[in-house]
Recover the amino acids of this structure.
């Protein structure tokens, strides 16, 4: 990645839109009440990226990420977004799709394939795993 400065303007060059891929974290299966953090990363760095997290066809989180030209020279690039559930409930069980929009150098959008979050109910998993408590009744 190179950055070329013209006066106060800086252009990101060497960005390949053809190879822009959105990678989401793998599917997770958790228990109710756990803290869950799923991520979405993309393979190129852009000056500005809009990230939409979608659930059930509805955008539930919008984020705008900026990369300053000077930062493009460093390693720690800002090409991930995360969605955190501090206390997950069964209602959060769903596939979450990350949609990434880039404006510069060209308007492009990419969808991730999604992360499926499965939230297991504490009570029903007790019945499945604990035969002894059923016997003692
Ligand atoms: C979620 O995970 C990402 C990537 O591992 C990390 O950068 C972020 O800080 C995490 N967020 C929380 C709230 O734990
Ligand atoms: C983030 O962008 C940098 C710079 O283009 C790239 O080297 C890195 O692989 C990207 N990270 C991911 C997870 O794609
Ligand atoms: C998590 O959510 C459940 C159900 O809404 C609630 O009963 C519980 O107190 C919450 N726990 C925390 C640590 O917020
Ligand atoms: C889950 O959704 C149902 C139906 O929309 C609602 O009645 C219930 O209160 C929700 N439970 C939690 C823990 O958010
Ligand atoms: C991304 O997903 C949205 C919503 O489902 C859809 O409208 C859009 O066409 C998709 N974009 C691409 C590039 O597949």
């Amino acid at each position: 990645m190179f950055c070329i400065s013209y006066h106060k303007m800086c252009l990101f060059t060497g960005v390949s839109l053809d190879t822009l891929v959105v990678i989401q974290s793998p599917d997770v299966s958790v228990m109710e009440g756990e803290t869950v953090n799923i991520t979405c990363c993309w393979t190129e760095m852009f000056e500005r990226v809009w990230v939409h997290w979608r659930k059930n066809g509805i955008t539930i989180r919008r984020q705008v990420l900026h990369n300053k030209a000077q930062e493009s020279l460093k390693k720690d690039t800002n090409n991930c977004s995360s969605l955190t559930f501090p206390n997950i409930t069964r209602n959060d069980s769903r596939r979450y799709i990350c949609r990434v929009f880039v404006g510069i150098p060209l308007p492009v959008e990419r969808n991730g394939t999604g992360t499926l979050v499965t939230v297991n109910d504490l009570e029903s998993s007790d019945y499945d795993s604990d035969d002894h408590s059923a016997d003692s009744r």
